[in-house]
Design a protein that fits this description.
The chain is of the alpha/beta class. It has a single domain, classed as Metal-dependent hydrolases (TIM Barrel). It is built from twelve helices and twelve strands. The protein has helices spanning 20-24, 59-69, 89-107, 125-138, 157-169, 191-210, 213-216, 232-245, 247-250, 274-284, 306-310, 315-330; strands spanning 6-7, 11-12, 30-34, 39-44, 47-53, 73-78, 114-118, 142-146, 173-176, 223-225, 266-268, 289-290. The strands form two sheets. Strands 1, 2, 6, 7, 8, 9, 10, 11 and 12 form a nine-stranded parallel β-sheet that branches. Strands 3-4-5 form a three-stranded antiparallel β-sheet, with no helix packed on it. Helix 3 (89-107) runs parallel beside helix 4 (125-138) and helix 4 (125-138) packs parallel to helix 5. The longest helix is centred in the middle third of the chain and has 20 residues, at 191-210.
């Protein structure tokens, strides 16, 4: 049996949703401005956030692009701007339900190939667990979460409680950075995306390690990080050195040095260059890297998996990254 090619990192945006500002008041609620039959703009209040195309909501277009790229199965996750972590828990719960239900409409055309991941109100662990259970019961295959909630990182007690629930339910978790810091230095050249996202992801992997979360969570938790895990693989040696030489400041609640936790999480392959992919394979292991594209956004990889397919590696490594590891992660 041929191992399917699986893209674990893609996003959707529905073609419209209820007026959130009218429902709850306030500003900066996301809305969709439809510009043409195939183009739209995500708005935050009166401000343009991102221009998008119909690949975000058009299943025919998505499936055609998957066929063109040689992708058999695609995980379809929320766009992080919809997380609503800065809103009240009740508002975030309602927003999550709206977008999760709309996601099922997008993926319903071919549920064997389009696997929806839900979002949850992560600022409220009990509400997050309820929404997760509702969504899994309705057909979602996993959950995407942001890498922090305000100043609470992934080692915060409430987030660990939710991750524990995911482990108990056997639900895979995909972590995506969001809400990057802004400054005069970061507002040029898309630096929030080029610098902020890798740094945010790196920080959150460290939080699970140094905050002792991995020591409190069962090894059965399946958790993966977007964008190659940010800069973590490059700087694992630095963290290891600091853990041993400045343990008074660095060790935190971790029982073991950072390298001990390699294998407890996976990353996607969206690093765009063979040397960077090789670093992931050599540092984290070929069984911890899954093909991802960040489809359909411009900073994603097209064709999906191009770097993995063109890289020099063992055939068994390539098969694992292109699909074998995702088959295990998703329990296909």
């Amino acid at each position: 049996m041929t191992t399917p090619v699986v893209d674990v990192h893609s996003h959707y945006v529905p073609h419209g949703w209820p007026d959130l500002a009218a429902a709850w008041g306030g500003t900066e609620w996301p809305a969709l401005r439809v510009d043409s039959a195939t183009e739209a703009t995500i708005m935050l209040g009166d401000r343009e956030f991102r221009r998008i195309g119909d690949a975000c909501w058009n299943s025919d277009r998505r499936l055609a692009d998957m066929d063109a790229d040689g992708v058999d199965i695609q995980v379809v996750s929320p766009t992080p701007v919809f997380f609503a972590y800065g809103r009240t828990a009740s508002q975030a719960s309602a927003v999550a339900a709206i977008f999760n239900d709309l996601a099922l409409q997008i993926t319903a055309q071919d549920p064997a190939r389009l696997l929806p991941f839900c979002q949850v109100p992560l600022q409220d662990p009990e509400a997050a667990c309820r929404e997760l259970d509702r969504c899994i019961g309705n057909g979602h295959r996993g959950v995407e979460i942001g890498n922090h909630v305000g100043d609470a990182d992934l080692d915060a007690s409430g987030v660990v409680e939710f991750l524990q629930h995911c482990a108990e339910r056997g639900v895979p978790v995909f972590v995506h950075p969001w809400d990057m810091p802004t400054s005069a230095r970061l507002d040029r050249w898309m630096a929030q995306w080029l610098v902020g996202m890798p740094a945010e992801t790196h920080l959150s992997v460290l939080a699970l390690i140094l905050g002792g979360a991995f020591d409190r969570l069962p090894p059965s938790l399946r958790i993966a990080f977007a964008h190659g895990g940010g800069s973590f693989a490059l700087w694992l040696g630095r963290a290891e050195n600091a853990w041993h030489r400045r343990g008074d400041l660095v060790r935190g609640l971790s029982e073991q040095p950072p390298s001990h936790y390699v294998g407890r999480f996976s990353v996607d392959s969206v690093v765009f260059a063979e040397p960077a992919l090789r670093l992931l394979l050599d540092t984290l292991g070929a069984d911890s890297v899954m093909m991802g594209s960040d489809y359909p956004y411009p900073l994603g990889e097209r064709p999906a998996g191009a770097v993995v397919r063109g890289a020099t590696m063992e055939a068994s490594e390539r098969e694992a990254v292109l699909g074998g590891n995702a088959v295990h992660f998703l329990r296909l």
